[in-house]
Specification:
The protein is mainly α and 119 residues long. The chain contains 6 helices and 2 strands, in the order H-E-H-E-H-H-H-H. Helix 2 links the parallel strand 1 and strand 2.
Amino acid sequence: MRSEITPGQTSDYLGFDLVMADNLPEPSVLLADRGYDSDNVRKIMEARNVVPVIPMRKTRKLRVAVDRTLYRLRNLVERCFNKLKNARRVATRYDKTAESFLGFIDITSIRLWLRHLST
């Protein structure tokens, strides 16, 4: 897992560049929402032999097909974020420094992972 913090007004493109660094294991599919629909993101993923499953923005002139069965799996990611936000400290961001906030996200993620392993 990799997590980064960006300012609230920052575009999703900046977060994409931070998280998809070359030192991560190579994914086979990228499941993302419309905020990541850009030609640049699609080119980068296709150059890395990754299938981008991103719905199109309504303003896109060149239409691109989306595998809806794969896109439905994105629900699992959204539910994971929901479970992370159940930790009040994550949802409200009480921490003053980014390092302590990211550390608590890691602790909460480990706690969720251990709970998943025990079931």
